[in-house]
Design a protein that fits this description.
The structure is a homodimer. Chain A is an all-alpha fold. Helix content of chain A is about 75%, strand content about 0%. Chain A is built from ten helices and no strands. In chain A, helix 4 runs antiparallel to helix 5, helix 4 packs parallel to helix 7 and helix 5 packs across helix 6. Chain A is globular. The interface between A and B is large, with 55 and 56 residues. The structure holds a DNA duplex.
Chain lengths: ~180, ~180
DNA sequence: GTCTATACCGCGATAGAC
DNA sequence: GTCTATCGCGGTATAGAC
């Protein structure tokens, strides 16, 4: 939901949501027993979307750097298409676990461990330079998310629209190039 | 302020703050005309602290990779000492400019541009591999901040305390090593 | 299912006694 | 400077008419 992403959980009232949907506040509470539950369902929906999209990329048959690039691009595309969602996830991570039904970390964990195994394999094979795979993945996740979650900050710093096509292309190119430089030199 | 960092602006009431300080809500409003102003002063104080600390590192007389490492370490130290502050900044970036007196971006801009010039110089000299300096800085900022701002997420993913001494050391080592690999191979 | 009406609470903020 | 008392507003949630 756009509103939760832009204004946070506490900053979004049921009135705001109802107004956006076009019904009354009470009618909203007829479908969802409480605000927390509504938020939880919205969030869960988005997490599963993300998970599905990432999963498609992860099972790509590429190997070595090509596979890493496919996954990076898939993540970038999804975040670019769902910048609101990035803000929502960041807020959830910031808030810790408050008013959060599902634990994102545990949902993502299987895929995370699979990625770790992939990097360990490639590093052992000498395809990639040695780095701690878990740290590497968190650095990558931070590099992808920060551009979108801190868009307002980036805009102030660079005087560009971070979500415009040119800026997105430049950001994508940099992230890919940067990780390639660090991993395969 | 710890509360703003943990619960956000909307999530923190004047009652909470007053309780922490040990006075009544009204007494708080005697010192600060409004909640926004209180928040603004807290935030401004922290920004200037950060700025001062970064400034010390930036004027270090080192050159090439050594200087980059000094600055990275200074940033890491400050964030490790003020993890709450990281959360506050992230929230500010997420909220855009709402209820924000000072614009962080414009405050940081002079130092940002100075850093850009430094990287351009080193890249032209061949000390560093070629990357877009602005993108590089934002990637670095994201790599440093995300560990602290998303600590709850990291904890769920790695089953460690991200702010414990061992985890901090490992994170610092990785970030330094990763950027060195990308920049100087 | 969606509405109106309403109860109840906590918020930010003001006024005035001490 | 700090308190109590109070206002007005907007929040979640419930009950009942249609």
């Amino acid at each position: 939901m756009v509103l939760f992403a832009a204004n946070g959980y506490e900053g979004t009232s049921l009135n705001d949501i109802a107004a956006e949907v076009g019904i009354r506040r009470s009618s909203l509470l007829h479908h969802f027993p409480s605000k927390q539950i509504l938020y939880g369902e919205v969030f869960e929906q988005l997490v599963s979307d993300w998970f599905a999209r990432l999963g498609d990329a992860v099972i790509s048959s590429d190997t070595g750097w090509d596979k890493a690039e496919v996954v990076l691009n898939a993540g970038f595309d999804f975040f670019a298409d769902n910048a609101d969602y990035v803000c929502l996830v960041r807020r959830a991570a910031l808030d810790g676990s408050t008013h959060l039904t599902v634990d994102i970390a545990s949902v993502l964990r299987p895929m995370f461990e699979k990625s770790v195994a992939y990097f360990e394999r490639e590093m052992a094979a000498g395809t990639f330079r040695r780095h701690d795979p878990r740290q590497l993945l968190i650095t990558g996740y931070g590099a992808l998310l920060s551009w979108f979650s801190d868009a307002a900050f980036v805009e102030g710093l660079l005087d560009i629209d971070p979500l415009g096509p040119d800026a997105l292309a430049a950001r994508r190119e940099h992230v890919i190039g940067f990780f390639r430089a660090a991993l395969v030199g």
